[in-house]
Amino acid sequence: MAHLKLLTPETPLHDACLRLAEVYSGVEATKRYPLYRWTQISNDAAVLAEHVRRRHQEDDALERVAKLLARLLEFVGYNLRPVGSLNFIHDNRLLPYALLRACLVRQSAKHLRYAPKSESLTKWVVLKYPHACSKCGERPCHCVVTPWVFEERRENPGPYLKFPQSVEKKQCRLRKEDWQDLTLKGLFEFFHAIYRNTLYQQDPWKTAFHLSEELGEVAIELTRLQTLCVIDNKTLGDELSNIQEKVKNKFDDEIEKLRTTKRLKVGDRSKIEQKWQKNFKASFDDLEAASTMPTDWLRERWGLKQISKNKARDLALRLYFAEIITRKLKEELADVTSWLVAVTYAIRPDKRPTGELAVGPRAVLTTLEGGYAKKAEKTKSLGCIWCNQAPCSNGCLIRNSMSDELMQEVIKF
Predict the structure, then answer these.
(1) How far apart are CA 107 and CA 117, in angstroms?
(2) Does 164 map to a domain?
(3) Which residues neighbour 202 within 8 Å (Cβ) at sequence distance 6 or greater?
(4) Alpha-carbon radius of gyration of the chain
(5) DSSP class of residue 378?
(6) The dihedral sign for the CA sequence 152, 157, 158, 160
(7) Residue-by-residue pLDDT tens, the chain, 413 positions
C-alpha cells in the first residue's frame, strides 16, 4: 500500500473518507455485513456515553469522539470508493455491501441545479443542512425561540408548516460553491455557524443521548436493508399486498385525523392533504411498476437488462425498497455527523461562543492527525490508531477485542 497522507485539519472530508477506507481495507472480517461495521460505531458510542457520564473524563471522551468520527468517515468511504462494476446478486441473493454501495452512489438531489452528480458525505450534510438549520431554515438556528413548535410538530403541525418551506427555499438557493467539499476543520465550522447559539447551552449527556438516537436510526435502516438481502426469493412478493394494505390503512387513518383536527386552519389542512396524496400516488405508482413491469423497471431505473423474467419481479421489489431505505440512510448519516460535532462542543466548550474553533474540536482534530499515524516511520503516514499499520488486518481486530474481553474477565471489581 502506498503511503497515505495524514488527516490534517485541512484534509477534504471525502479524501479523509477514502483514505480511512484504504487503511481498513485489509480487515476482511468486517466486509460481509454493513450492520457489523456499524455495530462497532455503536460500541464506541457506548464507551463515549460512559465517559460523558463520568464528568472528569473529558480527555477520554474527546478521544472517543475522534474514533467515532474516523469510523463514520471510514464507513462512508468504504461504501463510496470506486470499485468498478457492481455485482450485487449472488446465488439469487443480494449481497449486503454491494447493495448498499449500489444504492448510496445513486445520484441524489437531481432537482437542485448546482448539486454535485457524485455522492459524498458533504453532499448529504449540505442537502439536509443547506447552510442553515434543517428544522427552521435559519442560520443561526432559531429553534430555541419556540422549541415547542418543533417538539409538537406531529401533534400540532400548524405553527410548524412555514419552516419546511424555509428549508426548501434554502436548498433551492444553494450555489455551486455552497456544495464544495468541507474539510475536517470546516465540518466543525459549518455546524458551529448554524448552531453556535445552542452548542454552548447543551448538557453533554443530553447531546450524547441524541447522538445515540441518531446512531440507532442508522442501524434501523441498515437492518431493513440487510433484511432485503437475507429473505428468500418469494416472501417479499407474497407479502406485497399485505404491505400495501397496511400502508393504505395507516394513511387513511392519518388523513382522517388531519381532516378532523381543530388545530389546523382549513387551508393548511388542504395543503397537507394534497402533498400527502401526491406522495402516496407517486410511491404506489412506482411500486406498481416494479411489481407488474419488473423487466422494464429494472432496465429504466437500474440499467439491468439480462434478468430472467422469473427473477425480475423479486429483484425489482427488493431494489424499490432498497432505494427508499438508502434515501433515508443518507439523511441519518448527515444527522449523525451533526450530533458528533455537537457532542464535541458540549464536552469541552471554551465558554466563548465566538467564531473561533473551540477546545473540543481542536482536541478531536489533533487525535485524528496524530493518533491515526504509522509512528515507526521517519515520514509519518496514515495508519490504524490501534496497530499503527496500513492496511490494518484481521489480527488487529481480534487481538484488541479478545485481549480486552480477557482483561475484563481477569480484573473485576
Answers:
(1) 6
(2) no
(3) 342, 345, 346
(4) 23
(5) S
(6) positive
(7) 668 999 999 999 999 999 999 999 999 877 778 999 999 999 999 999 999 998 778 999 999 999 999 999 999 999 998 876 667 776 556 788 889 999 999 999 999 999 999 999 999 999 999 999 999 999 999 998 888 998 888 888 888 989 999 999 999 999 999 999 999 999 999 999 999 888 767 889 999 999 999 999 999 999 999 999 989 889 999 999 999 999 999 999 999 999 998 888 888 899 999 999 999 999 999 999 999 999 999 999 999 888 888 889 999 999 999 999 999 999 999 999 999 999 999 988 765 555 456 789 999 999 999 999 987 666 789 999 999 999 999 999 999 999 999 999 999 87
Cell of 150: 418543533
| Count: domains in the chain | 1
165 CB-near residues (< 8 Å, 6+ apart): 137
Helices then strands, each counted (H, E), the chain: 15, 2
CB within 8 Å of 342: residues ≥ 6 apart: 191, 195, 199, 202, 207, 210, 211
Q: Is residue 28 part of a domain?
A: yes
Q: Between the CA atoms of 333, 336, 342 and 346, what dihedral angle is there, to the nearest 10 degrees?
A: -160
Q: What residue numbers bound the domain in which 271 lies?
A: 13-131+174-409
What is the rounded distance in angstroms from the CA atom of residue 234 to the CA atom of residue 232? Answer: 6
**DSSP-derived secondary structure letter, 383:** -
Strand partners, 375: none
The structure's pTM equals 0.94
Q: Please check whether residue 7 is in contact with residue 17, taking contact to mean a CB–CB distance below 8 angstroms.
A: no
C-alpha cell at 306: 439480462
Q: Are 127 and 19 in contact (CB under 8 A)?
A: no
Helices (H), 54-179: 58-80, 96-104, 121-128, 147-151, 162-172
73 within a domain of the structure (yes/no): yes
> Percentage helix, strand, coil, to 5, in the chain?
65, 0, 35
Please list, in sequence order, all residues whose beta carbon lies within 8 angstroms of the beta carbon of residue 226, skipping any fewer than 6 positions away.
Answer: 33, 34, 35, 96
Domain membership of residue 150 (yes or no) is no
